[in-house]
Amino acid sequence: MEARTGPEAYLDGYEQILTDAAGTGRRPDRRQIDSRRASGEQAAEAGLSLRSCVAAHLSATRRHWPAGRTSAAGADHVLGAAEQAIDAFAEGYERAQRLAVRQEAADRREFVDDLLHGRSHLGRLAERAERIGLLLSYAYAVAVAEGAEPYDDFHPVTRQVDASLVGRFGSRNILITTKDGRIICIAPGDQTDVLTYFAKQAHSAINVGARIAVGRAKGGGGGVAHSYEEALSTLELAARMGFDEPVLKASDLLVFPVLARDRQALADLVHTTLGPLRQARGGALPLLETLNAYFDAGCVSAEAARTLSLSVRALTYRLRRIHTLTGCDAADPAQRYTLQTAVIGARLLDWPARS
């Protein structure tokens, strides 16, 4: 007898179920039902479609329709047995598919974690990346978006952003994923329009509390991980410094990591330059906020006064008080640099809250 292939290869035992139902009216027992479920799982693992398998079962039912048995009872026995058998087959098929989907999701999550943290062997990581459309021989940049709530791969906001990018750029060499409640876009570093479009779409979809940071393009085995860490550091810096811009580029903020690199020297500068402000009535914080507003306004007194809801006269008085206490004149270009650097350091170190 010629071996059957395709969907017909997973009909073993089904014909006997039909024969029993036609001859005695017996329904399939537990062993036969379990066998049908197992066949369904095997068909799914073999990559066959459920539609073709059901069609094969219906063809077999027609071939095994009892000759000369046309009574309603006989037909009901055969159809009832076929219904149970096909239902068990479909149940096994769907179970195998669910397991495959869960396994695929777990494999993807493991890959994303390894890619963002550079934990896997480069050769194996590159092979896994190529299967989802990334070529790690390129230099990649990573953009990270966060909002007021956490996001996962199935969140409507994530799916909306993903659909927007795929619709415009396709999925080749671009990956949208999530990590720690943030939405992440990984794209070739020379395709800045992709990251710009991602930032625009993410900001629009997240809306409330949206903040996006873009790391610099990095090559090499750990390029994606380095760019990702840089984007995270930029988000942290933005929160600490109180930046209001919704989209921040790490390349525009390189001075801050440089300042923070030698924390001891920065702390000495802050305490030496701004420490005397503690002697002011009300403590150092009001005068420090005055300096922040003054420097953020480009040293324009009228604009700084509006930001602080003060009169220009009151602002000028505060600046004179700062000069008296610190010995640094914010209006003097030579002294302004030291004072402004100390103010930036105070933000980075959360001074004076953390002394």
Helix content: 55-70%
Number of helices: 14
CATH architecture grouping of the largest domain: 2-Layer Sandwich
Mean pLDDT: 87
Outline the biggest β-sheet. 5 strands, mixed
Indicate the CATH topology of the largest domain.
Alpha-Beta Plaits
Look at the helices and sheets and give the structural class.
alpha+beta
The count of DSSP E runs of length 2 or more, i.e. the number of strands, is 5
Give the terminus-to-terminus CA distance. 88 Å
Q: For the largest sheet, list the strands in their spatial order.
A: 2-3-1-4-5
Provide an overview of this structure.
There is one protein chain. The chain folds into three domains: 6-101, no CATH class; 125-253, Alpha-Beta Plaits (2-Layer Sandwich); 258-349, PucR C-terminal helix-turn-helix domain (Arc Repressor Mutant, subunit A, Orthogonal Bundle). 61% of the residues lie in helices and 7% in strands. The relative contact order is 0.07. Strand 4 (211-214), helix 8 (223-241) and strand 5 form a beta-alpha-beta unit. It is of the alpha+beta class and 355 residues long. It is built from 14 helices and five strands.
Can you give keywords for this protein?
single chain; 355 residues; alpha+beta; Alpha-Beta Plaits; Arc Repressor Mutant, subunit A; 3 domains; five-stranded mixed β-sheet; 5 strands; 7% strand; elongated; CdaR_GGDEF; Helix-turn-helix domain-containing protein; PucR_C-HTH_dom; PucR_C-HTH_sf
Put the structure in a nutshell.
The chain is of the alpha+beta class. It contains 14 helices and 5 strands. It has helices at residues 14-24, 30-45, 50-63, 72-117, 122-131, 156-169, 192-206, 223-241, 255-261, 263-274, 285-296, 301-308, 312-326, 333-349; strands at 140-146, 175-179, 182-188, 211-214, 247-249.
